Amino acid sequence: MADSGARLLEGAPIANEIRTAVAEDVATFTAVNRRPPGLAVVIVGRDAPSTVYLEQILRGCTKVGVHAEFVELEGEATEASVAATIRAVNTDPAVDGVIVQMPLPPTIRLRTVIDAIDPSKDIDGIHPLNAGLLRLGYDGFLPATAHAAVEIMRRSGIEIAGRDAVVIGRSAVVGMPAAFLLVKEDATVTVCHSRTRDLADHVSRADIVVVAAGRPGLVTGAMLKPGAVVVDVGINLVDGRVVGDVDFASAVVVASAITPVPGGIGPLTNALLLTHLIRAAERQAAAHPRTGVEPGMTAPTIQPAPTAPTAPTAPTAPTRGDR
Ligand code: NAP
After folding, report:
1. Is there an atom of ligand 1 within 6 Å of 146 CB?
2. Antiparallel, parallel or unpaired: β 236-238 and 241-243
3. CA-CA distance, 63 to 19, in Å (whole number)?
4. Which atom of ligand 1 is nearest to the CA of 236?
5. Which of 210, 233, 268 maximizes ligand 1 atoms within 8 Å of its Cβ, making it the mutation to test the pocket?
6. How far is 219 from 240, CA to CA, in rounded Å?
7. Would you put residue 151 in left (φ > 0), alpha (ψ -120 to 50) or beta?
8. Which residues of the chain register pLDDT less than 70?
9. Model confidence over 170-199: pLDDT tens digits?
10. Of 305, 168, 224, whose CA–CA distance to 6 is shortest?
11. Which residues partner with 246 through β-bridges?
12. What is the side-by-side order of every strand in the sheet holding 38-44?
């Protein structure tokens, strides 16, 4: 509970519960399949700000017994070599899930990369097949951040069905999937974006506000309906501090519940990604009981595609501490 009376929706306690359950599932999977679930994280150059976030994912995987590793290409890698590397990872039987570093260098078209990912290993739900399944309300892999934005409310006992929700942001990875998930939970959803004429008016009528715009201070307490639930997905670096898209100080005195930044959606996103991975691993083990992986093997042996430059570059200083 925050000083004001608004309930603080922290991601870490929920994430810890999830990780404990995942660790048990990983142990069972490893015993049955004689290999741990495997995650490959394809990165193109180590200097992207998201590398820090991806390193966090790797550490989180190691803690629960998942084998995770970077598959590195140099920053100058071509689109074709990135796609070829992803296709090589797709066929590696020791890899159950693939994540690709975002954003990619501007020379590489996102669509080419997304299309190259095997949908059954697409644990962050970016392939068109998984996006389509979500749109139709069927089970597929969900983008982990959007999943976290809704899951934090569900696991905190917040009623979603029948309530008016506003999602600010319409990106394919956060805003739109969050909106579709809220519709699936029976909310009445309005999606706002940079061309929305009167954002404050929409926000003032919402019982639930999910903000994913990447604009610090976009939503203030004065815009909120008293008692609104506020989920702040934004991550912005302001004066060396990580802040969200919501002006926390003014919002916390009006909202009934609010996620902090950092410490809200970020930790839960990483934990949910692990649940997606174990699900992918179990499905693949069921579909291909004999994977060709030698008993006792503990590490995927991923070779970047022949055309891909492979020399790793030095890690850079952290620039993004939460996601
Ligand atoms: P994005 O692709 O840049 O999309 C931003 C969206 O916000 C766009 O739809 C944009 O509208 C809208 N927008 C921008 N300014 C606006 C304004 N003034 N009023 C209303 N809408 C506005 O960003 P993203 O990838 O979805 O990420 C959104 C935020 O979430 C970022 O801060 C990012 O760092 C953060 N994030 C957090 C996590 C996590 O785990 N917590 C994960 C991923 C991203 P248009 O479509 O009209 O341009």
Report:
1. no
2. antiparallel
3. 9
4. 32
5. 233
6. 21
7. alpha
8. 1-4, 290-323
9. 999 999 999 999 999 999 999 999 999 999
10. 224
11. 219
12. 67-73, 38-44, 97-100
